[in-house]
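Hi everyone,

Forwarding the result from last night's run.
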Amino acid sequence: MIALLLALQVGTLPSPVSEAQVDTVPVITLTEALRRASRLDPNYVASLGNVGDAAWGRRAARLAFVLPSVQVQSSATRFSTEFFNIGTGQLASQIVDFRLEGSYRVFGGGSKIAQLREASAELNRAEADLVETQFETAFATESDFYDVLLQRDLSGVAQERVRRADEQLGVARARVLSGAAVQTDSLQLLLELNRAQVDLLRQTAALKVARLQLGRRVGADGPVDAAPLDSLATSPLPLTEQDAVTEATARSPRVVGARADERAAGAAVAAARGTYWPQVDLFGQLTTFDDQFFPDATTRSAAGFRVTIPIWNNAQREVALSRALTNREVAQATRDDTERGIRRDVIEAYENYNTARASTELAARSVLVAQENLRVQSERYRAGATTIIDLIIAQVSLAEAEAELAQARYGALLALAGLEAIIGRRLFSERNP
């Protein structure tokens, strides 16, 4: 049995991650990761472009109040036979004309006002989407960043578990050789060492994948390591639960966007109803004719106004109005549901943060208890006052407590990021990227 133990202990698993490998991985801070991710996320880039498009839409709606619609047109036509050219007053085989037209809608059933309201609402929606996307990108980036730190800490826990198992195995071997313990003690500890080494391999693989995901998030072609945070301590939230609900109901990007959609739907209804009103347009036209560019042989101008009274267009107006009314009802229901849902989401995120923060404190106490328990069990085993099973249980309990502490720490930070994403602002000034 002793020979078998020695043979099994000859080949130990190599360290999955060497120092040289760690040094070759670039390191990035959380602030830099947030800055780089915001420029690379496709959804954020699209939202930024939508804001620009919506701003141009509102600008166009405003200009429609003061500027007319202007069109310039020029054409040259060649004929197979000569004809009378009204520009030159002679027979010619070609005619060149230039036309400048302008029109201005004086009255159109409030369509300009409705279009401006709709364009303004669309801009508000685009801006709210931009803020929401910005915080969603930040949340995803922080999640990937904290995952690297968590997997690195868990790898450290696994390495420490391997070290303790190897150390205890040496103690057990010495006791077996001295006759103070049975041979199964070494086998039990050897089994624990093998399990610890397997867990270390799994954690190393998880850390590698987490680094690759962080690298993808920040636009790197390979893995990127996360720089350690200055502090993992979490502070009490600077606002009460009711204050968080009130603020989120007033400024949450989701709520702002839903309200903007409702205003845009209302403006669309007003525009659809405006098609039943007469339309009054002023127009002017300047035309020149010749047989060559630039035509200037004959010039004619015209000006006037046009009144259009809609009578019947095969129920197209009725269909458009019905759809606009339906869209407004849907937008109202969506806004109501969003406001109700945001209250639930804020309370859930608020409680998740407080729970994670309390869990961190409890997990830290559990680590201290598990460390003391392992120390006592180790001394008792050396003195022959306890069994090897109790010692292994103490080792595993300490590893589990350390893993739970690491998960609780980063869980609290991630819960804070989730609450900030719902409200739409940073709750602590030092967290501003």
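The beta strands are 27-28, 69-85, 90-107, 225-226, 279-290, 298-308.

Cheers,
N.
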